[in-house]
Amino acid sequence: MADEITQDEAKGTAGYLLEMGMLKRAKRSGWWIAGVKDPETIAEHSFRTAVIGAVLALMEGADPAKVALLCTFHDTQETRVSDIPHIGRRYLTAASNEDVTADQVSAAHPVVREGIQRIVEEYENSSSLDVLVAHDADKLECLVQAVEYREQGHQNVQNWIDTSLNNLKTASAQALAEAALNMTSVDWQKTYLR
C-alpha cells in the first residue's frame, strides 16, 4: 500500500504537476535564432524525444520504459530557467538541472521528490546505455525538428542538423538520422496510400 500523503505533500506534488503545465506554453527559444517565428514548445519536444527514446532503446537493447522516462524529465527544469539557447549559455551561469529539480520537488511527497531527483541525476551524470540512448533521442529529435523546419522554408537550420548529427553516438540514432535527412515530413504515409 502506498504511503499516507499529508495535505502539504499533496499540495506540493500537485503544485509540481501544475508547474509542468508551463512546458506546454514555453517555446524552444533556439529556433528563434533560425528565424522560426512560432517554434515548438518544450513539452512538444519532450514528448517526441520520449517516443524516439523508446524506439532507440528497442533498437539498441536498452530499457525502453526507462529511456522514455529519462527523456520525459530531461527538460522539466526549463519551467524555472527557461530554454537557454547554446549561444546564450556562453554568457550565463545557471544552476544545475539537479539543483533546479530539487527546488521544484522540494514540497512534493517524499517518494515523488526522491524519484524525480534520481531520474534527473541519472540523466545528467550517468554513462549507462539507457542514458546514452536518452541523450541520442534528444539530439535526434532536434535533427528531425530541424528537417521539418527546413521543409517549411527555414533555411537557417542547417547548423542544428549538422551539430545534432555529429553528436549522435549510437548506430541506431545515426541510421535514423540519415533516413530522416532523405525524407519529407509526409513520406511516412506513402506506404498507406498505395
TrEMBL record:
InterPro entries: HD/PDEase_dom, HD_domain, YfbR/HDDC2. Coiled coil: none annotated. It comes from the Bacteria. Keywords: Hydrolase, Metal-binding. GO terms for molecular function: hydrolase activity. Residues 38-152 form the HD/PDEase domain. Its EC number is 3.1.3.89. Its cofactor is Co(2+); Mn(2+). It catalyses: a 2'-deoxyribonucleoside 5'-phosphate + H2O = a 2'-deoxyribonucleoside + phosphate. Signal peptide: none annotated. Homodimer. PANTHER family: 5'-DEOXYNUCLEOTIDASE HDDC2 (PTHR11845:SF13). This is 5'-deoxynucleotidase.
